[in-house]
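CHAIN AND CONFORMATION:

***
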Amino acid sequence: MRIGYLECFSGISGDMLLGALVDAGVSFDMLADTTAALNVGAHLEMRKVDRGGLAGTKVDVVAGEGSGIGGQESGDARTHLREHEHHEHAHHSHDHEAHKRGHEHHEHEAGHEHHEHETHRPLATILSIIQAAPLKEAVKRRAACAFHLLGEAEAAIHSVPIEKVHFHEVGAVDTIVDIVCAAAGCEALGVDRWMASPLNVGSGTVKCQHGTLPVPAPATLSLLGDAPVYAAGAPMERVTPTGAALLRMLDVEYGPLPAMRIVARGYGAGGRNTPGEPNLLRLLAGEAEDAAQGSEPIAVIETVIDDSTPQLLAYVSELLLEAGAWDVYRAAVQMKKGRTGVQMTVLSSPEKLPALRDLLLRETTTIGLRWRIENKLALEREFAEVETEWGKVRMKVARLTSGQIANAQPEYEICRNLARVNKVPLKQVMQEAMRAWAASQPASKRKHE
């Protein structure tokens, strides 16, 4: 299985992901052809840049008259409609300095022109542009998914039906190209599973269609959901709405770098150079190590409590299991000031993490907890039934990926009921079930005889 890992220490935007993909080996010509296939009067430019002392690849979308494939740009008439600078569109300004905002990823190198019909598009129009392009269906599905996610976020923010949503700045030509080319580039990289580090969303404020707002912008915040975020470095917008939509489009899982053999790496640059803080997105692609094959993410929540009763903790454990936790266990620990406390550990699927975390804070006396995402490997399981003198017993059998039987155990609850009804020792019922199961196996496969 090939894993793609995005290290978002300086956030993520559409053009940063394009740069990282190209830097990791995705063909720039393929992305240029994808841009041409959209037929929206735009083309790509690529160059190597320095960001905080590190080299990265910068990919820009250039849109405007004469900018189609085969056409020539007209110098000052070149138009850069960067997706994250949706904050500037409401002003209709041609002032070059107005585009050098401290919160932006990118700096303009030419004048800014804006026409209402170029940047206000309903979702249906954007989807029709994508659908009409001669591209792989998988690419079109992913790109359409990203715009659906953006549309749902905008609809929720403004409390209107998604059909009524008109994309303002994110409907600009360059954002359409960013999203479709990112979908094509990720498809070309051949990644089966996407993961990412916690996201540096930045800080400060942004100017947008609806005024000056704190970072992250409302659409970005809505799209990120419960993704792990933090703010570090100089005030600027580091995760853009398009960047957040791309993370959702890729169905990214968040956690530490998994065990894998790295086969490709790339650095995608933002437009702003921040000395000492490389404005880059790093992409690692690798093959999962054999030990990680068949693994799945698992959330681990822990808290230590020294002022609660055993009855309360037992009750909370029941609530956690009823709420979907895979397992809950408690262990005595030595705390500061010589007090004995109880460490409660909860295991669950990552999507259950927010609900279980809130349950712990609500139902226990703890005032803090911690959590992390790890890898879980579970053997394939099947069930078999054996006959004993007291009745039938169900056996749980675990197999390795090779198909070899690794373990077999009788179901405890069934054995306990048979032992009580027949007034025989539980261990005798379990031993007889194991003997019957072993006798039923071909001689070459007997492991528990």
